[in-house]
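## Example pair
The file below holds two records. Each record gives the amino-acid sequence first, followed by its structure token line.
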Amino acid sequence: MSKNREIEAKVALNQESYEQIAAAYPVKADFQQKNTYFDTPDELLKVHHNALRIRTFKDRAEETIKVPEAQKLQEKYHESLEINDDLTSEEAESYLAKGQVYLGGNVGSFLKENYPSDVDKLRSFTWSQTHRLLLNGPFDCEITLDQTSYPDGFSDYEMEIENDDPALIKDCLAQLKDRFKLEIATTNNMSKIARASLHAGN
């Protein structure tokens, strides 16, 4: 289990920019991951700006809830508190087969404390499948490149820069914007859970 503050910039990319950036920097890791997202039928977590998922990898899994950070260190980039619990692949498969979440860890404790009457209503409602590249980017700042597909067949490309130092994120983004002529929105791009909801299919 871990709790950590997440500060990150998200940039939507087209396929050309994605491929250019992927080819320009050393690859630190290359893997697949699947996110399965959970909420109550009346979207109680969404109302409170919480995002709950089980993420599965080739040989492991984790359950995470992202919640708003009460005391932000900065205002420019997305910032949240992540609460994580490790799961085995077998545990995750068991819960996902039932469309349910694991309530025995710290994520479960948070849910039971904040939503005591609603934890039994949590069910999976959509998913996303991501091919993720971790790159050693400018100033040795790690860049995450995601190619993600959704239930309705839609796919997109995204770059994330997560770091404890907002100034480093800013410098890294500036160099990438200049080198690859990126159009960077002044507001946060839509989160994966929001995009997965939009492209949930029937």
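Second record, same layout:
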Amino acid sequence: MIDHSDRLASHKEGTFPGVGGLDLYYQSWHPEGKVRAILAISHGLGAHSDRYNNVIQHLIPKQYAVYALDLRGHGRSPGQRGYISAWSEFREDLGAFLELIQTQNPGCPIFILGHSLGGVIVLDYILRYPQQASLLQGAIAIAPTLGKVGVSPIRVLLGKMLSRVWPRFTLNTGIDISAGSRDPQVLAAYAQDTLRHTRATARLATEFFATVDWINAHAADWQLPLLILHGGADRVALPAGSDIFYQRVNYTDKLRIEYPGAYHELQSDINYREVLADLEDWLERHLPSGVVQSRRGSGELEFPSS
């Protein structure tokens, strides 16, 4: 769970209207003083916005604000667990979330990060809406599920068969919790997490696989700075999937880092400090030219003289 006692950040919670008027939950953390940039986070299947404490603790002292939402059917947001009627719901919800952030922070640079299923949502949104995406500074996909996934082929087949006749049919994903992290304390926290779920519906399965196919087919259209981080020993989202997508992206400003032996929840694995250092380095290099390193301890932005 998130430690909200950190004096470096002010924590806020709220809701915003998603597709169909569903009030989706989000939370944000703002550093004291001026914000240099914002990182918006879209979580993975069965997860929620509380799962990124290490990212928040690392970036807040660097004068970044962080926003994270709970997807529909996840965390504190309403909706049947693990259900969508169409993938466009995820896509449009993300668009509404980004609009909310832009409204609350006019003119502030925004980066978008998607983890696992959230990575697929982010990549799809950017490819579908290149004009809106051009307002972003860049995109980060951590362990995106773009290829083979650690779900039984029988479960996948059953989901595809039932999607049309019983779209809300729910199965346990069967994903091994120990595949998340090599840190036993992290795994123990996951097991006690009452907001976490392991459900996926038949309709979500078919929408997911169709979206992954579409993303891979349109990878050459990518036009935004891109960072992909993946664990070499990820059994949930096999790393070959993100590598294939990465190779198909023709845009020159792209970087993919694979961490040997690392698991699916890179932000909470035993090498998370290395991962967050790489993330910070990439963010720093992609800030607008008018935003440079803030004065140590002042929290003030420095702009070049005109």
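Notes on the second record: The chain has one domain: 9-149+207-285. The mean pLDDT is 87.
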